Amino acid sequence: MRHNGLEKPYNWMQVSTWIILPTLLLQFFFFASPLLPLAASIPCSIAVFFFGALAAYKGYTTCITDPADDHVICHLNRQNEKTFVDEEKAEEEVKYCFACETNVHSHSMHCKFCDKCVARFDHHCQWLNTCIGEKNYQYFFETVVSTCLLVFAHWACLTGIIVAYFIGWDNGEISGTEQRAKDWFGANQPNVVIGFNLGFWAFDTIAEALILQLLFFHLSLRKKGMTTYQFIVKDNEKKRMESRKQMDTKRRRADHMKREIEEGNIFGRMALTVGGWKGCGCIDPIRREMREEDRAAKLAASKAASRRSEMEHVKHDDSDNDTKDGITVNPIRLNGYNGDNGVHANMGKNGTRNAADTVASDASSISHQ
């Protein structure tokens, strides 16, 4: 069982993050910052190195935080798990994990990479080589944001350098960027320096697009209150339903086509054939039939829900009326006889009998008889 992302075994994606981050900072320090004017070099350097340090810190915090389920931690520490469960909310649901050999929270999932149950499992991040769950999701999200800002700041600085260089190069004059490249490196090869920056600019463009996609994806998940795992499960279920629907459509089309052939209906066969083409769903009799069935099912479900709501409302009103009258109906079975001659009731303190007095009185009357 791996407790955090800094434990072995490592993977190549995790190691690549350890290489890429310092490489970006070193490239900026040696090849980008010297080509900027002094007025721009200082603030740009501060921004790039600040976002770099922030991304490293947030990523490290995400890795060292153990997202394991609290029940698993207690089980590993040999603590009294029953005492721990008693301290939790009584209504909280748990389930048994055969891999961890202990009860876990109902929202926990077992990660095959880390071999442990993770509280509110989101996903296993290959870049950080750790599970993302309830305990470290916020750190992970902040890592994505800070990395996005780092790559954008690096990309913006390289964009300014490249644009300034080619503007002067196009005018046939030595630009300030080209002159600074000659003065700083002393190799008199400004084209090589700009080409090196251009390569990192292309890398930043691709990386920023991918990170932004990940960032917007998690923003949408946070808005919906979902985890990545829940999204994948829901998406797979949607795909399975679509697959079943397509299979049902093909089966119905084949049955209808067979019937139309037997009846010799040429127009019906044409409608079935053309309706199966993309963009021709409006004239497809099969899909029209399925849409009508869906509408009927939704209408029936709506009516059933409305009836349930009305019944609950009536039941709630009856309960309120009984409470206002100070009487709570309590049928009592006495010697195999359900005392319906009267409905025995629990009375208040207003000089009326309670249920025990009523039972005693009824028993006495039966014995006298």
From TrEMBL:
InterPro entries, per the entry: Palmitoyltrfase_DHHC, PFA4/ZDH16/20/ERF2-like
GO molecular function: protein-cysteine S-palmitoyltransferase activity
Enzyme class: transferase
The organism's place on the tree of life at top rank: Eukaryota
Annotated region described as Disordered, given as residue ranges: 301-369
Keywords: Acyltransferase, Membrane, Transferase, Transmembrane, Transmembrane helix
Catalytic reaction equation(s): L-cysteinyl-[protein] + hexadecanoyl-CoA = S-hexadecanoyl-L-cysteinyl-[protein] + CoA
Protein topology in the membrane: Multi-pass membrane protein
This protein's GO CC annotations: endoplasmic reticulum; Golgi apparatus; membrane
Entry-linked Pfam families: DHHC (PF01529)
Composition skew (Basic and acidic residues), residue ranges: 307-325
Domain notes: The DHHC domain is required for palmitoyltransferase activity.
PANTHER family: PALMITOYLTRANSFERASE, ZINC FINGER DHHC DOMAIN CONTAINING PROTEIN
The name this protein goes by in its record: Palmitoyltransferase
Organism annotation: Ditylum brightwellii
